[in-house]
Design goal:
Mean pLDDT: 91
Number of strands: 18
Helix content: 10-25%
Length: 358
């Protein structure tokens, strides 16, 4: 019996109501021409966006635009959502079997996609670290949008997953000044690990050429308006979902000719849209992960069977993380489950992770 014939079911995580998630079994057909069967090794929880989905807070007006590439169902629920998955190809076109790949796919133990949806992970990038490929891609897009220049003074507000990624990539630019800004003084150690200067918002240096805002807070964006220099640019990388944000667009906003520009990873930034494809952007992101410093973003792990409880703990704040990694059963364990299952299984899990998260 071939791998594709044996693997007839899969298990996936679904958001089924506000702050309600469960694992559901589903049929998995054999891969067709040009398709690959991927066995998941790890997936990552992109806390900002995925918790918006968990809280059923995706605004109706952008529900279509915010759909993940391989999402099933529709917002608010039930929906299968997620986009940081790494696995190994168990079956597919010639030359693909055995390759470790990244895919913008929800949390699921096996899945089938066209091979064009897969990014091959380069040698030297551990599979666990490779779950960050999609977040590095977001940071690359933000920098293409910002267009930093030689000698620029740049501030990144928000030392979370995306803000830290942006700051780390900027550390390689020939800037005159770079600060990573956060209200939490404990983030100083994180900034040190990334090799960038840290500042509390009250102590941040003004007259920036570019401010990149990643804190998803009204206060952070307001502080960005104060720190950017005359005719400077603020790149807004936060997504506020259904929250309202108030900004002081009176005062000196017009007199100083300030600009606020959104960056969103769904499309390649305009400055590179005609020269880079999304696939090329992902391949670039994967190649950058050969740097072991990116391991600092992986702040805990839990088994796939405990995913519903893990998401809830992230939502209620009892579990803190930058990128929390979900670990999947071995090939032998998945094969055993697949062979013993006659029908798709639907079940819930409320187990709690036991691993340290910091």
């Amino acid at each position: 019996m071939t791998t594709s014939e044996r693997h007839t079911t899969a298990t996936a995580y679904w958001t089924v109501g506000p702050e309600q998630g469960e694992l559901r079994g589903e049929d998995l057909p054999a891969p067709g021409p040009g398709e690959a069967l991927v066995r998941t090794l790890y997936s990552g929880i992109s806390k900002g966006t995925e918790l918006v989905v968990h809280h059923a807070s995706v605004p109706e007006c952008v529900a279509g635009a915010m759909a993940a590439p391989n999402q099933a169902g529709e917002f608010p629920y039930p929906v299968k959502f997620g986009y940081l998955t790494v696995g190994v190809v168990d079956a597919g076109p010639e030359g693909w079997a055995g390759k470790t790949v990244f895919c913008l796919y929800p949390h699921q133990d096996r899945f089938i996609v066209p091979v064009e949806s897969l990014t091959v992970i380069p040698d030297g990038v551990p599979a666990r670290r490779a779950v960050l490929t999609g977040t590095v891609e977001t940071a690359i897009n933000g920098l293409w949008e910002a267009g930093p220049r030689l000698g620029d003074r740049v501030a990144v507000i928000g030392a979370g997953l995306v803000g830290g990624m942006v700051a780390r990539l900027l550390a390689g630019f020939p800037l005159a000044r770079l600060q990573l800004i956060d209200v939490d003084p404990a983030k100083r150690a994180f900034a040190d690990a990334l090799g960038v200067d840290f500042s509390h918002p009250d102590d941040a240096l003004p007259d920036c050429d570019i401010v990149i805002h990643c804190s998803a807070s009204q206060e952070g964006l307001q502080r960005g308006l104060q720190l950017v220099g005359d005719e400077g640019d603020i790149i807004e990388m936060s997504w506020y979902a259904d929250r309202l944000v108030t900004l002081p667009l009176g005062e000196d906003f017009h007199a100083r000719r300030l600009s606020i520009r959104a960056s969103q990873v769904g499309m390649v930034a305009r400055a590179r849209r005609h020269r880079r494809t999304s696939a090329e952007r992902l391949a670039l992101a994967a190649s950058l992960l050969q740097d072991p410093v990116f391991d600092v973003f992986l702040t805990g792990s839990s088994p796939f069977a405990q995913l519903p409880g893990t998401v809830q703990r992230l939502a209620d704040g009892t579990l803190d993380a930058l990128c929390h990694v979900i670990e999947y059963p071995s090939a032998e364990a998945q094969s055993s489950v697949a062979q013993s299952a006659d029908e798709p299984t639907e079940f819930k899990s409320t187990d709690q992770p036991t691993e340290a998260t910091r």
